[in-house]
From TrEMBL:
Complex and partners: Monomer. Binds directly to the core enzyme of the DNA-dependent RNA polymerase and to nascent RNA.
Species: Coprobacter fastidiosus NSB1 = JCM 33896
PANTHER family the UniProt entry points to: TRANSCRIPTION TERMINATION FACTOR NUSA, TRANSCRIPTION TERMINATION_ANTITERMINATION PROTEIN NUSA
GO BP field: DNA-templated transcription termination; transcription antitermination
Taxon lineage: Bacteria, Pseudomonadati, Bacteroidota, Bacteroidia, Bacteroidales
Subcellular location: Cytoplasm
Domain NusA-like second KH: 289-350
Domain Transcription factor NusA N-terminal: 10-131
Ranges for domain Transcription factor NusA first KH: 206-283
Keyword presence, RNA-binding: yes
Matches recorded under InterPro entries: DNA_repair_Rad51/TF_NusA_a-hlx (IPR010995), KH_dom-like_a/b (IPR015946), KH_NusA_2nd (IPR058582), KH_sf_prok-type (IPR009019), NA-bd_OB-fold (IPR012340), NusA_N_sf (IPR036555), TF_NusA (IPR010213), TF_NusA_bacterial (IPR030842)
Single Gene Ontology MF annotation: DNA-binding transcription factor activity
Location, primary (coarse class): cytoplasm
Domain of life: Bacteria
Protein name (Swiss-Prot/TrEMBL): Transcription termination/antitermination protein NusA
Amino acid sequence: MAKKEEAISMVDTFSEFKELKNIDRTTMISVLEESFRNVLAKMFGTDENFDVIVNPDKGDFEIWRNREVVEDGQVSDPNLQISLSEAKKIDNDYEVGEEVTDEVIFEKFGRRAILNLRQTLASKILELQKDAIYNKYKDRIGQIVSAEVYQIWKKEMLLIDDEGNELLLPKTEQIPSDFYRKGETARAVVARVDNKNNNPKIIISRTSEEFLKRLFELEVPEIHDGLITIRKVARIPGERAKIAVESYDDRIDPVGACVGVKGARIHGIVRELRNENIDVINYTANTSLFIQRSLSPAKISSIRLNEEEKKAEVFLKPEEVSLAIGKGGLNIKLACMLTGYTIDVYRDIDETEEEDIYLDEFKDEIDGWVIEALKAIGCATAKSVLAMSREELIEKADLEENTVDEIINILKAEFEEE
């Protein structure tokens, strides 16, 4: 009964190995042979005099041992030597000094040897699987993957791909409004593959700019075919994004191609990103023009660049300022991210009116942080502040009532003196 169990155990060992994916035949044979040799070396002190022949397709193997024929009574190592009388039992023609090759039945070594083999194999199989997963996903960084949500925790989600590999979607890489149930399919981009202590960990992301790029490649054939190039991307995940595209073919309208007829192409991307608003603009190497486009839908009156410090002062009509800044400051924040410039917006001064004064001139009377708060809402000059109502200044600049009253009095006094 024991021998039968051992034989079944050996067959199981092979069948387990044959089920493995991503492991080629040559590697399979090599690992099986190495595992046998490890066990033989532990049992006999060396495996050099053994020939191991593995046939994983049939699930069988042969082990042959080579020993030197010595005179009876002269055997010092029964693994490397065989007495003449024993050799003649195998074949009567053997002489001293010749080599005897006979088959070794591994199952006869007992349950412990088989268990040792299975443990060795299991360890090597695990290493191979880890290497295969690491190599597979290392080459897929930046590509979109779809996987099934398997487990949801507070700080991350565990997903399983089609081959049973585990993928991690941390909370920090999830769109704030993402909501998944176990068993649902999620799409994300492979962000990175960590391999600490040969333990691969695949991190995927739905918040990266690369995810947005790849979605456009899937939805817009012209991008996939290289007719349109994505030059810049800026995202505030789940809120708003800006993407700058360029076509080298004058016959192709890159913005129109990305949006699609009645927004057909971009709608799918917006849905995938939980209704993230996406602005598609034409890329240009002209920095001034690119900044103007990045602040769309606001229309700019004029712009002043400082290319060394990567700063831009943008002047707009009063009614355009709130458009340039956007709800919660998102529009200007994304424009800064997209262009790489720090952008300050100011209300345009009408030159036909009497002379205005920049707020910086009042630093002796108004605190610097208050001036910066006013600039942040597009008020760079005294008259642009006075043009706003007291309530607007309190709400938009987030200032105390008495502070706003003090500012208004200081600025009014300046013009009254004149």
